[in-house]
Design brief:
Helices cover 71% and strands 0% of the residues. The chain has four helices and no strands.
Length: 76
Amino acid sequence: MTSFFLGLGFLFEKVLFIPMDLFAKLELTNWWTANIITWAFILITCYYFAFWLKQLKIFKANNEDDQDTTAHSFLK
């Protein structure tokens, strides 16, 4: 059973963290390049947040927005 957990440790520390180790070494030379994935996720999140707000505005303009003050029937 010990070898199973040692194998899991090897998998996570030596194999699956290879990209993170590369980014950690890259950060010492260029911070912007090392954080490109973070910036990509931030941009994607901002885009979909704006899309969501646009959709909320469309539903409100069509009076399809349910403005019920109680979230659940047991709160009535």
